[in-house]
Design goal:
By secondary structure, the protein is an alpha+beta fold. It contains five helices and nine strands. The strands form two sheets. The chain has a seven-stranded mixed β-sheet with strand order 1-2-9-8-5-6-7, covered by helices on one side. It has a two-stranded antiparallel sheet with strand order 3-4. The longest helix has 22 residues.
Length: about 210
């Protein structure tokens, strides 16, 4: 028997399975590796309908907007939440993590603007991601005085539901605004001051 014939053989099935698993893990890592950064790319090509302003806020004209994906699940408090249930209101969606310093910095402004605008039909919703313990997320909300609900999404699955080429959240923090019809109107991939957050919401709030 030759040396070549005595060499251990690697299962091609195992190799294919491992390659598939690694590819899936790599796709999830694209979202996770971009965490807590100051910006990102649009994720679309030349046929996208959105325009990025000098302030880093991307917007889409009414009539050219994409529908928001299904965003539902358990909140940090353990309650069931479906963002589609807020149809008819403007939804401000903020992706955050308790481990993210820019998220801590912008949280007080988000709560302040939420309190100012909720009577005008503006609903804030968070997506908490990459917190391996829901207790860390709950502690963050308590420390920052955040009163609006946040979906608990430790693996980033909800972020991946946004289609490529839409105004999808790609970093932590990210902020996306849905119009009253549940369509994606604006996005920021950077931490927001109170002034920039209001600037992002005001045009959508003024729409009839």
């Amino acid at each position: 028997m030759s040396a070549a014939s005595r060499a251990p053989q690697v299962s091609t099935h195992w190799t294919r399975s491992r390659r598939t698993a690694l590819t899936g893990a790599g796709a999830a890592a694209v979202v996770l590796l971009s965490a807590c950064t100051s910006g990102g790319t649009s994720g679309g090509g030349g046929d996208t309908n959105f325009v990025m302003g000098k302030d880093g806020i991307s917007t889409v004209a009414k009539g050219k907007r994409d529908a928001a994906p299904d965003l539902s699940g358990k909140t940090v408090e353990g309650k069931q939440l479906d963002v589609a249930g807020y149809r008819g209101k403007i939804v401000v969606l903020n992706v955050w993590g308790s481990w993210c310093a820019p998220c801590r910095a912008e949280a007080p402004s988000f709560e302040k603007v939420y309190q100012d605008l909720k009577a005008q039909g503006v609903q804030f919703v968070g997506i908490n991601t990459r917190d391996t313990s829901v207790r860390n997320a709950a502690a963050f909300e308590k420390q920052q005085g955040v009163t609006y609900p946040s979906l608990y999404d430790p693996t980033g699955k909800l972020m991946l539901r946004f289609e490529k080429g839409t105004l999808n959240p790609q970093t932590v923090p990210s902020t996306v605004v849905f119009d009253r019809d549940g369509k994606i109107a604006a996005r920021s991939l950077s931490p927001l001051s109170e002034e920039k957050l209001r600037k992002m919401i005001t045009p959508v709030l003024a729409e009839k």
